[in-house]
Amino acid sequence: MATAKPQRSPQEVEDIILRKIFLVTLNDSAETDSRTVYLELTAAELLSEGKDLRLSRDLVERVLIDRLSGGFQSAEPPFQYLIGCYRRAYDEGKKMTSMKDKNLRSEMELVVKQAKKLIVSYCRIHLANPELFGSSSPSDSTRKSNVSPLLPYVFGEVASTIDAFGGAGTSEGVKPPPGFVDEFFRDSDFDSLDPVLKQLYEDLRGSVLKVSALGNFQQPLRALMLLVSFPVGAKSLVNHPWWIPKGAYLNGRVIEMTSILGPFFHVSALPDHTIFKSQPDVGQQCFSEASTRRPADLLSSFTTIKTVMNNLYDGLSEVLLALLKNTETRENVLEYLAEVINKNASRAHIQVDPLSCASSGMFVNLSAVMLRLCEPFLDANLTKRDKIDPKYVFYSDRLDLRPLTALHASSEEVVEWINREDPGKNKSTGQNNEGENRLLQSQQASSSGSGQLSNVGKPKYPFICECFFMTARVLNLGLLKAFSDFKHLVQDISRCEDALSTFKALQGQSPSPQLDSEISRLEKEIELYSQEKLCSEAQILRDGELIQRALSFYRLMVVWLVGMVGGFKMPLLSDCPMEFACMPEHFIEDAMELLIFASRIPKALDGVMLDDFMNFIIMFMASPQYIRNPYLRAKMVEVLNCWIPRRSGSSITASLFEGHQLSLEYLVRNLLKLYVDIEFTGSHTQFYDKFSIRHNIAELLEYLWQVPSHRNAWRQIAKEEEKGVYLNFLNFLINDSIFLLDESLNRILELKKLEAEMANTVEWERRPAQERQERTRLFHSQENLIRMDMKLANEDVSMLAFTSEQITVPFLLPEMVERVASMLNYFLLQLVGPQRKSLSLKDPEKYEFRPKELLKQIVRVYVHLARGDAENIFPAAISRDGRSYNEQLFGAAADVLRRIGEDGRVIQEFLDLGAKAKVAATEAMDTEETLGEIPDEFLDPIQYTLMKDPVILPSSKITVDRPVIQRHLLSDSTDPFNRSHLAVDMLIPNTELKARIEEFVRSKKHGEGLPLQAEKGVIHTSGDEMLID
Predict the structure, then answer these.
(1) Mean pLDDT of all residues in 679-689
(2) How far apart, in whole angstroms, are the C-alpha atoms of residue 620 and residue 632?
(3) Is the confidence at residue 3, as pLDDT, over 50?
(4) Which among 321, 213, 252 has a CA at the least distance from the CA of 481?
(5) Where do the record's region annotations for Disordered lie (predicted)?
(6) How far apart are CA 17 and CA 963, in angstroms?
(7) What is the largest distance, in Å, between two alpha-carbon atoms of the chain?
(8) 941-971 as b/e, with b when 16 or more CB fall inside 10 Å?
(9) Which one of 40, 317, 602, 814 has the fewest CB atoms closer than 10 angstroms to its CB?
(10) 771 class by beta-carbon count within 10 Å (0-12 exposed, 13-18 middle, 19+ buried)
(11) pLDDT in tens, 687-744
């Protein structure tokens, strides 16, 4: 070894070291290493110059150029040679630790360091100009034309014990000499390295193109993370022509497939369109024939997918964070994200065009990455929310947010508000130009840095503000869209399974090749759908951290929005602040959708602070002046419905209802208000929509009735609002009950006809196969409709039963009592009347049809109202119902009630009420005979009954009876004669006509010798008889 011979001079040692590093010699003497090249021409030149044939620092670059340019037959290709030189230089450097002469060691270390620097420099030159030194190997030339020779060494540098799932990847790494990669990329000028880096980025992009979650993406991802950690690597990436692709046909899908980062974001477990399908196929590999797999195998697949996807999220977050921390590249990252968001805006549509929009996988991945970028400002106290400037929605030219539907303001109102000048600021600026004033206002909006003036005269927003709005958009187009797709997928599977069941039933009756084909097609479709569902479950639903991060983000969202209206306090101001009114509607809708989804995933809400969400919902669900869309407010009730303790299975949610101040004070009130408001949504499907929305409200109200504090609040509201919102609520509850029960019973009759058709097998078989299929589909459709309508009807009747026990006054108001009596009579007629036998079903429970329970509840409503009827007006109202009242029904119902074990006291009270109604009916007939022919002007023009309290309608000038028009106004706030607006407080008493009617009645009664007290409708007892007028 050279260092072991002290007699050698430093020049000799230097020569030996450099010969070993560069494998060259200037002497044609025998060399032990066959790789060593004799530089004959160089030696001759040196001799002619009178120089020694010895390698030195001064000569080494000249020697290296000659070695690279010489085209020696047995020599290595240039790049491999240079890498070898660096490795040998590293080895020589390690050997020097054994040198005893410190001065010599220091000198030789410097030689090695300079050699390394030279080698790296020529590596850069060669990679940037591969043709400069030629190539002695055809295979090397071919390789260079495909990928950068540096790529395997970058892969080798980032090689880890945690390798990509699925074994070895497509690109094998080669371990580079220690320190080579770092020295190659550090401390270099941009121009020399940029071409090399551009090629590497293109190679990395290509290596993950169409790679799924089970493919080798981790090695290229780690390589990308390494490259952007160098300032020159970060700068080169954002200056690459493919950072944001350009072109007339640029769309979301083009960005995903052709940008440098796009294919990394495309890596996913979620399925994509066939053209862009990634390999290996996750669904096929992990979830094919899932029903036959062991639960442990499925769980293993779920865990694997969740782990590799989180590796991807972490890696891409690190890449973006490195670029964002660099002031030279931050703006480019924001431009890239904005371009991805803006070019994929149509992902918000129900139907997404896979050829023009990026994949669901890309946007779910981007959602996860953006949430990681938000973490610094999602602290428990949300201390940095003042950095989020609402004016970003209007004044930022980065994201196109203005076309989005606003919470309350119309697009015209938004424009008008933006254009409106602030007089105070106009004076201070002294500008006449409206646009400039508006711009300055936005720039001076907040002293906390929310809007600052940039050099180019545009408002500049802090990163927190930009990140917040971008994340909101990405979640809308990504994670929340994926939730929606998942919901539709589950519905598709259910529909296919129903169809398959129908076809198999038909096949059992009359086999045919066409049915075989349909069954086979549906089974394949269900298999593919099931794989897709399990892939989504693996990447999204089972990733608790992803869900919790999203919940933290939307907690910030609701707290920030509430800040615009003065914080969490009630009641709200009557005028909605325009900043709030102009915010995109999907901000709140996405928060509600996420809460609904998370509530259905076990343990997803554990540890989440739900109080802010609860406050927000209570504040806005019944505030149409703040949130115009009734369906969005209805979605808030759906969230609360998921939190009912028996449904959520969590004690946390119970405290939200039972120990929460705003909840105790406003929840019942706002639910009743929303129940009324939802009658008119403005949608063409409003009539049917209201039933499903009210179903959620009814379930919630039923739970709240069982909580004493809420029940007390309910009773107080009924007392305060007995002629306001509570009366409206009661009216719609009765309307719905009648409609739903009527629909259900009519459908039962239709279903029984279809059953009879299908039971007559001889006739049934004679029908054409297509007709049988259609009739079978109709049968199953009717079954589903009956089940749904009966479930809703049961809820409504149940609510009438439990509320009427403690709240009776609103039921017995003049404008309501006859409506209530008619409804109860109608239900009684259907359940115990002559046609009840035609409603018998083989399996009534299957259709939620429980006639015995329904009868019990109807009778209890009768009895509850009779108990609260201090003025005894209820029996007369019952008997006045000409459509359904029949005195015999009370006895028939009592017989049924005894058979099914109803409380004897309730039965007796019910029979007593029936007896009173019978007497009232007789008295009414007597009165009618007494009054004889009534003048037309005394008759109500709507019901043709004698008016008791005539009022004039201000618009049409027509006189009607007050209870009749009040009943009409509960459902329709218009004049029934000309459709102009009408409210109760607009009615004008017709005192002159009332006096004439009273005089008419008095004269008739006196003439017949009837007691004057009967005018007040008081019941008089004479022996055992009860009389009523």
Answers:
(1) 76
(2) 10
(3) no
(4) 252
(5) 418-455
(6) 112
(7) 154
(8) eeeeebbbbbbbbeeeeebbbbbbbbbbbbe
(9) 602
(10) exposed
(11) 778 888 999 999 999 999 999 999 999 999 999 887 788 988 999 999 899 899 888 8
Q: Give the orientation angle of helix 586-599 with respect to helix 479-509, to 10 degrees.
A: 60
Total-model pTM: 0.85
| Phi, psi of 279, rounded to the nearest 5 degrees | -125, 150
Produce one character per residue of 653-675: b if its CB has 16 or more CB atoms within 10 Å, e if not.
Answer: beebbeebebbbebbbbbbbbbb
How far apart CA 666 and CA 569 sit, in angstroms, is 11
Tokens in use for 611? 């109080």
Q: How far apart are CA 389 and CA 398, in angstroms?
A: 14
Residue owning tokens 């259907």: 830
Ramachandran angles phi, psi of 952, nearest 5°: -100, 135
Among 98, 85, 91, 75, which residue's Cα sits nearest to residue 19? 85
CB half-sphere exposure, 531, CA atoms < 13 A: 17
Distance CA 172, CA 182 (A): 20
Alpha helices for 410-512 (secondary structure H): 411-419, 423-429, 434-443, 463-477, 479-509
**DSSP class per residue in 971-1026:** H--B-TTT--B--GGG-EE-HHHHHHHHHHHHHHHHHHT--GGGGGT--EEETTEE
Nearest-10 crossing angle of helices 479-509, 360-374: 140
Q: CB atoms < 10 A from the CB of 706, how many?
A: 9
SS3 279: strand
Going by pLDDT thresholds of 50, 70 and 90, the confidence category of residue 298 is very high
**Ramachandran quadrant class, 51 (left: phi over 0; alpha: psi -120 to 50; beta: rest):** beta
- φ, ψ (nearest 5 deg) of residue 718: -60, -35
**pLDDT tens per residue, range 964-1006:** 887 777 777 888 888 888 888 888 888 888 888 878 887 876 6
Residues 142-184 have pLDDT tens digits of 444 578 899 999 999 998 644 444 344 445 678 999 999 999 9
- Letter for the amino acid at 37? V
CA distances from 688 to 128, 552, 694, 739 (A): 68, 35, 10, 11
DSSP 388: -
C-alpha 949: how far from chain center = 53
| Residues 920, 324: Cα–Cα separation, whole Å | 83
The mean per-residue pLDDT over the stretch 594-611 comes to 90
Has residue 43 got a pLDDT over 60? yes
The C-alpha atoms of residue 492 and residue 598 are separated, in whole angstroms, by 21
Go through the chain and tell me how many residues it has.
Answer: 1029
Q: What are the residue ranges of helices labelled H in 282-390?
A: 282-287, 295-325, 330-343, 360-374
Distance, CA of 591 to CA of 584 (rounded, Å) = 12
In terms of phi and psi (left: phi > 0; alpha: psi -120 to 50; beta: otherwise), the region of 300 is alpha
Pairing of β 37-38 and β 24-25: parallel
The values of phi and psi at residue 783, to 5°, are -60, -50
Q: Which residue has the tokens 């008997």?
A: 879
Here the tokens at position 303 are: 């865990």
For the chain, which domains are there? Answer: 10-128 (no CATH), 725-931 (no CATH), 936-1005 (3.30.40.10)
Q: Which of 794, 788, 785 is nearest to 855 (CA)?
A: 794
Closest listed residue to residue 619, CA positions, set 584, 667, 575, 660: 667
Q: Which long-range contacts (CB under 8 A, 24 or more apart) does 658-661 make?
A: 658/707, 658/709, 660/611, 660/614
From the list 851, 848, 857, the residue with the least C-alpha distance to 803 is 857
Angle (deg, nearest 10), helices 463-477 and 586-599:
60
